[in-house]
Please model this.
Amino acid sequence: MTVLVFLDPSLPAGRIVDAAVPALLATDQGATRGDGVFESLLVVGGKIRKSQAHLDRLESSARAMDLRIPPQDLWRRAMATAVTEFRGNLAGTVGSASAPTGNAAGVGNGAGDDELVLKLIVTRGVEGGTTPTAWVQASEPPAAGRAQRETGVDVLLLDRGYDSSIAERAPWLLLGAKTLSYAVNMAALRYARAHGADDVIFTSGDGRVLEGPTSSVLLAHAEGEGPDRIRRLITPQLDSGILPGTSQGALFAAAKAAGWELGYGPVEPADLFDADAVWLISSVRLLAPVNRIDGREIGTAGVRRALTAELNELIARTQ
Amino acid sequence: MTVLVFLDPSLPAGRIVDAAVPALLATDQGATRGDGVFESLLVVGGKIRKSQAHLDRLESSARAMDLRIPPQDLWRRAMATAVTEFRGNLAGTVGSASAPTGNAAGVGNGAGDDELVLKLIVTRGVEGGTTPTAWVQASEPPAAGRAQRETGVDVLLLDRGYDSSIAERAPWLLLGAKTLSYAVNMAALRYARAHGADDVIFTSGDGRVLEGPTSSVLLAHAEGEGPDRIRRLITPQLDSGILPGTSQGALFAAAKAAGWELGYGPVEPADLFDADAVWLISSVRLLAPVNRIDGREIGTAGVRRALTAELNELIARTQ
Model:
C-alpha cells in the first residue's frame, strides 16, 4: 500500500492522491533531470522519528541547489495526513491479504513491528515554471532492510571517484545534498549484488572511507571490562563530502550520554578491518551490522552481536 | 507547445498524451531517483537528425545501468508520431500568438528556422515493477541556445571531481551513460550563470579537459594559407569518462572528408587557451563558439567567426 499526499498551499493538510493514478507531469524536472531533493523517514507506532533533523536536511539540500521548497509547517501537516491515512487504511485491512505481516526481525531492535516509511520529495517542477512539485509518500518498509538489521550485510568497498577534499572547493558537485539524482547510488548497489555482496561503502580517490549509497558508516572499538571498559564510536568526518547522517547524529548524542567516546574520521579502509564492529546506519533500515568487507570478516560474530544490541538500545531511546 | 507520445507495445505508433495532464506515477523511479536515461535530438524541416546515433547511445546508456528499454523500432514510430503531431499543431496555429517566431540566429548555421527538439526518456518505472516508462517529448528549441550559435558563450572551467582514468575502473559511476541524474550538470550551469558566464567546461581531478554539462568540447588550429592550409580539429579522448558526442562524431566524419586533420585528446586547459577556436557542440544548440574561458579570450573574433562558419557548413551537410 502506498499513500500519497501532495503539498498544496490552498490545502494546508495536503491533497491525498490515489497512488495508482498518474500525478506528475511528464515535463517535471524531477522526472526529466533528477532535479530535486528528498528525505526518507521511519515512523514507528505512528510516531515520526527525527522529523526536525530530516526537515532541516531537506532545506539544506534544497539550498545547495538553489531550490525553493515549501515551509516546514506544510511538510509537517502533509506528513501527519499521510501517517493518519496510511494507518487508517491499514486498520481497515488487518487480517486481509494486503496487511503487512509481523516481522520477527523487528523485535529487539527497539523499533517494533508497527513501522512505515515516509518519503518527502520535492522537484524543481516543470521547465520554465517557478512552482516546485512536493509530496509525501507513505509505504511499508522494505522487508529486506528489516531482515538485515538482524542478519547483517556483506559489503564491497567501491571507489566514489572524488577526492575527499573536493566538496568545499566544488559546491556544484552537490556533495552534501540529498538529491533525486541517485542513479550512481543505485548502480553501486546493483554492482555489489551482482558480485555477491549486499551493500557498498564508498571510498574517496585519496583512500578515505566515505559513506554507503544510502547510509552512514560507523565503527566501534571496545576495550577492557566492567567499570574501566572503554567504548569508542567513530564515523568519517563530514567535510569529506558525505551526507550528514541524521541517524548517525542522533545515535552519537545518545552514545555520548551513555558514556561512549566519540570520534570523527579521517577513516581509512584499514580502520574498518581493525574495528570490533562496523555498521551502516540509516533512517529506515536503522543499524545494519557489517559481517564482511570485500570478503574479510569484521571482528567476531559474538562481539558484533553484543555491540549491535547495545547500540540498538540507544537507538530505541532516540526520537 | 509540448507534444508527448508514450511508448506502448499495444499501440506501435505510440500513445499521444496531453502534456498538461499528469502522465507519470509519483512512484516512478525516474522521478524518485533519477533512475533512467535520455537523449535530445534536433529535428530540422521535419527531418530528425542523427536518429540512429541517438538510439544507439540510448541503448548503450541503458545497458550501463542494467535497464531494459523498448526496441528501436518502437522509438522510431513514436518519434515520427511526435514530429507529425507537433508540426500539425504548429500549422494550425501559424500566425497566432503561440506560434514560434522566426529567429534570425538560425540563418547561416545550416539549420534554418523550422526546428523542434525531441527528447527520448526512459525510466526504470515503478519500484518493484518490471516495465520501464518510456516517452518522446517534442517541443520548441530554447531561444537562448539558438542565439548562442551566433553570439557564442563565455565559459568557466569547473572541476568535475573525477580522475580521467576512473571510468574503466569504476563502471558503477556510469560515466559514459546519459542518465536522468542530471542535478550536478544543472548545478554547474547555475554556478556559471551566477558567476557571469554562460556555460561550463568540466576538467578532471588530474587536470584534463573533459566535456560540458550538456555538450562536447572541440578545439581547432588553422595554419598557413591556400592549398597548403592545415586545419586541425581536436576533442578529448573518449576513455577519459565523457559521453561520446553524437554531434562531435558526425562533425568529425564530415571534417575528415573535407580535409581536416583530426585528433583525440588528452586535452589540457592550456590547449584550449592556445587554440584558434574552441566550441561546445551538442545536438540541439549545435556549435556554440567559446568567446572566453575564465575571462580570457580564445583566439580572435575574426578567426572564431571564420572557423565557425566553416564548421557550420559541414554540420549542415551531416544528417
